[in-house]
Design goal:
The chain is α+β, with helices and mostly antiparallel strands and 577 residues long. The protein folds into 2 domains: 280 residues, NADH Oxidase (3-Layer(aba) Sandwich); 199 residues, NADH Oxidase, CATH 3.40.109. The protein is built from 17 helices and 24 strands. Strands 2, 5, 6, 7, 8, 9, 10 and 12 form an 8-stranded antiparallel beta sheet that branches. It is globular.
Length: 577
Amino acid sequence: MDPHTPPSTETATDSSPADPVNRVIHYHNQTKHHFFRYARSLGHLDWANQPNPFRRFMDAPFYPLPLLQPEQEPRSPTYEAMYQREMILPQPVTVKTLSRFLELALAITAWKRAGQTQWALRSNPSSGNLHPTEGYLVLPPMNGLADSPGLYHYAPHDHGLELRAELPAQDATRLLQAFPNEAFLFACTSIIWREAWKYGERAFRYCHHDVGHAIGTARIAAATLGWNLALLDGTDQATLASLLGVNRGKDFAEAEHEHPDCLAVVWPAGDTVTVPLWLDPTSVQSLSHGRWHGRANRLSHDAPVPWEIIDDVAEATRKTSIEHRSVTFPSREPSSAPSETLKASREAGVIIRQRRSAVALDGMTSIASATFFRMLARVMPGADRPQPERPMPWDALPWDPAIHLLIFVHRVEGLMPGVYVLIRDPAKLPLLKNAMNPHIEWIPAPGCPEKLPLYGILEGDAKKVAAQVSCHQDIAGDSAFSLGMLAEFDGRLRQGAWWYPRLFWESGLVGQVLYLEAEAAGVRATGIGCFFDDPVHEIVALKDHTFQSLYHFTVGGPVEDPRLTTLPPYAHLERSI
């Protein structure tokens, strides 16, 4: 079959079994890249129909947020202190702190210009810089915003909030009272067409990578303000769609629809609190009776090209169950005595704002083994601890880790080049060993900290194979190291087909931590969504769906493009604090 056959010539769902898990596996297998065939796309870029990367709701009241300079309060802590929650004094929730939160989570960080072409970069990375992710907040009445509780859509181009709905005060108060003092809700949706325009049937994967990155940027932005964030993953998707209004057909009548993805609660850390990880559907339904505002703008001139296989997997992974779970977050007493290491660290906001996706690496830069080990330690989720006691940002995810790293080490001082495995949940070592080639020797990496479960499994120059399996992209071999993220696949799916997007969320969060770690170390990183799925598995003889590679990543010395000009993020707006 021609890899670029338009979707209208084949109905992928016709041959898919009715069971949701089998439909997910069908989608995953169908959208794999192979040496002899790529996943289907249109085969060309229809530039005249490229989706607008900025959604707006026409006629919705708009509340501009203050454009805070980096040196204005609230300033972010040092990068190292951001990971030491007791070092950060919790800030109150105000329009000013919300502005800083959204700036570091979803805002524009710079514009790039090449000739007459200009495009925006954002705090949250995106596959192809296409930005399918939209952000929403449910907020109580607040100075500078509406006088009643409201549902708001964040507009990054103009750094402001659009009021989508005025929520009935009594019902909204009852909903938020289930959470800690000053809590608000944060949610993400995906406009899948933005990714499908370029990537075709693989777009569902990439949208959920981006959701994972956005969960990461939001959790990290919250940490800089001394706030907690926890996914309300017990909520069913119909309730989420109702809360966000993305099921309101008349508001999206001529516009590309949004897929409801995830919901989180955010609140200033403080006393011990018990947080429910779900919303009551009846309470949310009562909110829908509020006054709604705005109609979604159309992003493409022509209608989106339909991809039945994406529609089918989106339906198969819809979460219909509600999990009535609660989690107790312990109190945290801020300390006022930062260590010398923390004082020497750069400000977190500086690193977040300067994060970029590398477009090329120099093939020469190496990193010290201590730096390498520190990066890997940051992606360790503390699997032996309950969720609230896990290190930031892993305390946001209410599940045990499912992602492990197959690492191609090229230029790490003190380590032999070769293939290594980082087991992010040490209890899964037997599972990984049983799934891989039984003749592999698992040798602890020399010089590795005792608590870091990093094993060397194949010795030798891996630059060529790393590039080859990453769709022949040199950037995977020109790095200090690159990696593939192996997900516990079949076992998680058998718990519910809705696990499929969550595996991508976790891999996106791993990527976000590595992005910032690379910047902090003076190098640069980028995610790689294009890779040959099964050839990656063949490296270690993975033969079934116990594990599947979901995302690739690479870290090294960047090569800057002198043809590009960098412009400030909000010079087009004439306002400040």
